[in-house]
Amino acid sequence: MTDRIQQTTPLHSTAAQGSRPIYFVAVILLIALAVLSWWADNRLVEQARREIGRELNAVLNTTSRALDQWFQNFEEVLRIWGSDDTIRELSQDLLELRQVYESLRSTPLQRQISNHLRPVMALPGIRGYGIYSTDGIVLSSSRLSDLGRSLSNPELLELLNKALKSQSKPLISLPLKGRGKDFATMVGAFAVTDESGVPIALLALRIDPESQFTEILQRGRMGESGESYAFNSGGKMISESRFGEDLKTLALVPGMGVSILTVDIRDPGGNLLKGHRPEVQREKQPLTLMAQNAIDGNSGENLEGYNDYRGVPVIGAWTWNADHNFGIATEIDVDEAYRSLSATRKLFYFLVAFSALLVLALTAFFVRSRTRIAETLQELNLSNERTTLILNNATDGILTIDDRQRVVRFNPACEEIW
Known about the structure:
Strands 1, 2, 3, 4, 5 and 6 form a 6-stranded antiparallel sheet that branches. Strands 7-10-9-8 form a 4-stranded antiparallel sheet, sandwiched between helices. Strand 8 and strand 9 (313-321) form a beta hairpin. It has helices at residues 11-82, 85-95, 101-106, 109-116, 118-121, 154-166, 209-219, 244-249, 289-295, 334-337, 339-393, 412-417; strands spanning 126-133, 138-141, 171-172, 176-177, 184-193, 199-207, 227-231, 300-307, 313-321, 326-333, 399-401, 407-410. By secondary structure, the chain is an alpha+beta fold. The relative contact order is 0.12.
């Protein structure tokens, strides 16, 4: 044999060149999948946060309106009874006895006032009443031991002075330090005037902040870990926390477990429920992000997460009630708020990963198929070259006829014969 089989292009080089379009398409698909996944994930998170934000603000607004209505109801009670003719007349009679303690205590006027105010005392959340002179002497009270005494509580004195100046406007305080079994109390006051409209006394009602005030806040919550609570301008909680047991365990409240005026809305810097122990004393810790913004007079929300007064990561919405000078917050643990979102994102990322693996698997399949085709074609070419080489060098005449009896191939020897 004088001819030689021609050198063929290496298989790996031919397959690599033929697979480049497949690799290119696969890379484009993976990039497109990554971009679309990033966009879809952002949209998913944004939509979930928007929905949670709407729910938080709905709870906050509902709670805020309920508290406004509660204040208005008690203000109306104060206005009605403070303007009552009987209260005016009895107050004028008591003013004549105010310098003599025994006279104030023994006078039948006390019984008349107590009986007259019985419907008021039957209202939910009312702890007691008091009638004070304009200079702060107790003329009548559901606490007989207070009769004839001068008020010494500066916050209460300030409230009564404001009520005297406002005259026709009832005022209700935020929770103040109470006495005895009343750890904290709210006080509503209204100026009692004579026929000419000159203030002669003050009617005050003691209100239990653990009653309707706290109940309204505790009804406004989301999920299992949600909570709504109120706080004053000093960052003190003025409603009961629904996490009283946790606070007792963490020694953030007294043994009786009362949160009102004992819990500071401050960030301990870590989750106290998980064992974090701050190095800074409680009173030196910064206010929580929510409390600081609210006390600054800014209503808003935070859906990324911040630490609450227990150090637990939460999201929340808040507002500042300028009329009564206190803040309201509605919060829920981050873990619970985004639990469904986390599950959805896990499923989404699984589908993305599955799609990416599918693209890679198809790419590998097509590359492998193309390689096998290239191998088959190369083997076929080699077989044809070998056949041609054999035919060309054979001394016998050889020809090939198809099924229609047509000559389709013959070698040089055959050509010489014919």
